[in-house]
Each structure stands twice: as structure tokens, then as C-alpha cells.
Amino acid sequence: MEVRLRIAFGSVVVGIVVLALKYVAYHLTGSVALYSDALESVVNVASAIAALGAVWYASKPADSNHPYGHHKVEYFAAVFVGVMIVLAALSIAREAWFAFNAQKPVDFTIEALAVNGGASLINAAWAYVLIRHGRKARSLALVADGKHLVTDVVSSLGVLAGVALVFLTGWLTLDPLLGALVALNILWSGWQLVKESIGGLMDEAASQEVQDKIRDIISAAGEGALEAHDLRTRPAGRVTFIDFHLVVPAEMTVVDAHDICDRIEAAIGEEVAGAKTTIHVEPEQKAKHSGIVVL
Question: What mean pLDDT, rounded, does the chain reach?
Fold first, then answer.
């Protein structure tokens, strides 16, 4: 099993363990704030399962029905996670509203807070693993899962601090208010994931930094050509699709033009991880005298 799949499977296991710990903390106290924290862990488990499925499917090789590969499935997984986050936020807000009206006493214990805090430490450590390996493997699903865990850790720390304050002051109103704040934080996290995923599904261009790097590489490695124009980029999971037109002297042979293309593709592949480059060669009368000038 490849590293990405092992990490994705590990997320499911970690998510279940953390969910169990946070539910124990909620069960010991009856706190709405701790309930909201536990419910977010349900989303974490669902997110981890979605990431596992996405990583597995995205690793499948291209076939006749999907000649560009299956990389975009990671964007769908991130959208699913975003929807789950929104549903969890609405459920937490509903519970907080009922608790605000009911004003039920809460049985806070040091043991419950310690259990919840231990679960948050596990989440923090695993979030670091996910983001580190996700960025290294250019896996949106793993990075999204890790970023969501970071949000969960921040929410949990806020909940723990607030719950301790309720315990010290006796202000029961703080408990549902904390739950509502957690719901808003989760909602924002969900929106960010959905926004990023929609950008990938809509074939947004690569970052300006990556585009500038590609232009510099073409200019430096395209010796023998005249110019390049109509550069287009399209990230899809771990892969970045790149295509452009390369203008060469009209008298240049096909073999020589092909050698230049090979040199440019190799140079881009060394600097842009997962690059898939397509070059359309044109004679010099097609030059636009704009775009990328070959040095």
C-alpha cells in the first residue's frame, strides 16, 4: 500500500479514536460546547473516509474513459467534506439554541476536560502529518483533511477554555454561546474547502508563481525556438496540465523542433511536480510577437 493510502487510512482510525474520546467527555458533562466538539469529530471521520476513497481512486491509472487520469476526484471529496461541515454546523447551532432556552446545569469534571484535551493533542499531531505528507504528495484530499483538523483543534482549545470559564463562574449561558461560536467557525472552514474545490473543478489556472516559473523555464530551455504564446495551465490533484504554442523558424526540421520540445518538457518536469506538458509547434509566420521570448 502506497504512503498516501496508508496515511488516509490512518486518518480514519485516528478520527474514530478522537470521536470516542470526545463523546466520553460530552457524556460525562452534558455540555453543549463539548457536544459540538464531539459532533465535529463525526465530520472528521466522514472527511477521513472521503479522503481515503479519493486518494485510492485518484491513484488509478488513466484509461479509455478517463484519458487525463482520475485526479479530479479529490476535488469532489473536498466538496463532500465541505457539505458535511455545513450540516454539522447547522446541527450544533440547533443544539445551542435549545440549550440557550433551557439553561440546563452542566456537570463539569477535570477528567472530562482532560479526555477532551488529550483528543485535541492527537488531532494536532495528526493534522501536522496530513498537511506535511499531503503537500509533499500534492494531494488536495489529504491537505484538506489536515486543514480541517487544524480548525477542529482551534475550536477545541476555545471550547476547553470556555468550559473552564463556565466552571469557574457558573454562567451557564456561556455554554450554548460557545457551541454557537464553534458552529460559526466550522461553517467558515466548510466554505473555504468548498471554495477551493470548486476552483479546481472549474479548471482554475495554476498560481501566478507557478505560471511565472513555467515562462522562465520555456525562455531558458527553448534555445532554437523564437517565442511561445497562449500558455494555459490547469491543476488537477497531483497533476498540472500545461499547454502552449511554440514558434520555430520555418526552415527548421521536425526532428529539431521535436528535440526542443523534449528539452522544454524535461526542464518543466524537473521544476513543476506532476507536470503534463503539451506543445503545439508553429512556423515563424504564426508568431504573435508577444508572450514568452526565447533567450
Answer: 82
